[in-house]
Amino acid sequence: MKRRSFIQKGALSGSFLALGGPELFAMQHRLAAMPKHHFNLNYAPHLGMFKNLAGDDPIAQINFMADQGFTAFEDNEMRNRPVDVQNKIGAALQKHSMQMGVFVAHKIYWTAPNLTSGKQDLRAEFLADIKASIEVAKRVNAKWMTVVPGYVDMTQDINYQTAHVVETLQQASALLEPHGLTMVLEPLNFFNHPGLFLKESPQAYQICKAVDSPACKILFDVYHQQIQEGNLIPNIDVCWEEIGYFQMGDNPGRKEPTTGEINYKNIFKHIHQKGFKGVLGMEHGNSMPGPKGEQAVIDAYVSCDDFL
Question: Could you read off the pLDDT of 164-177 as tens digits, one per residue?
């Protein structure tokens, strides 16, 4: 099988000796000889996850992902990349028939209230970001974008804050609906992100029901929800009609599946049995450095995807 990412000079220069040239070379050729894996679900790696095996160039990395059988890709930083890079990524994804996953649609307020405050200037800033992200989505053929409502407002009752968030998201939905785009709301756990407004899947479900738009759904991040609430499969079932996207990471450590306590083979099987056709973002780090660590990520997904 031809592996473009292995024969590109840029994929090897500068890293061959540093990573143990013969070992890296042998691993690349072993991967090149393996048949492409056919995954049951659309797992989406991100840039940097395979940089030792594929090189620093974003397009070489996407080529490598496709060669390994991955059918999707996500990039939180897409809206901050130069337009020409966005266009090149969009073309590479189209060439490989890969789905574009989420990118972060707006400035996230990690330590100060914005959408929860109800302040009109902060709402206007958010909606301007959404408008700009519509153009980004067009360049890369994205359907989903991540939204995090931001920090709690300690000066207001939680119900007033919820009303402010819902009203803002209704206005954002009106911008997105004509383009067939969906913002996915991501609850984030209290341990990694203390003080944020949106923490739990039932809360996200309530907000999506209130917004009442196909342009506003839940990003169910299994890592965050394991820490925040557990009871993963039952919560997935209850939230199902409002879930638009999944992300993964094992706990503890937020590394690839099989490195922690979460039974991802069962979770993937359950999601597949429910008929999910969307994207599952690989939003986690690698448990080991270098090419061996990158191969371990691939092996983990092959193993957890073996549920039929």
Answer: 999 999 999 999 99
User: pTM for the full model?
Assistant: 0.90
Measure the CA–CA gap between 86 and 81, rounded to whole angstroms: 6
Neighbours of 190 (CB within 10 A): 13
- For residue 221, which phi and psi values (nearest 5 degrees)? -90, 110
Edge-to-edge order in the sheet of strand 144-147: 42-44, 279-281, 243-247, 216-221, 182-185, 144-147
Residue with tokens 């394991």: 226
With a cut of 60, say whether residue 277 has pLDDT above it. Answer: yes
Per-residue tokens: 30: 């072993």
- Write the CB contacts of 210 (distance below 8 Å, at least 6 apart in sequence): 162, 166
SS3 of the chain: helix, strand, coil, percent, to 5: 50, 10, 40
Rounded Cα–Cα distance for residues 304 and 90 (Å): 28
- Token look-up 């009109």 returns 120
Beta-bridged to residue 221, according to DSSP, are 247
> How are beta strands 243-247 and 216-221 bridged, if at all?
parallel
Q: How far apart are CA 19 and CA 11, in angstroms?
A: 12
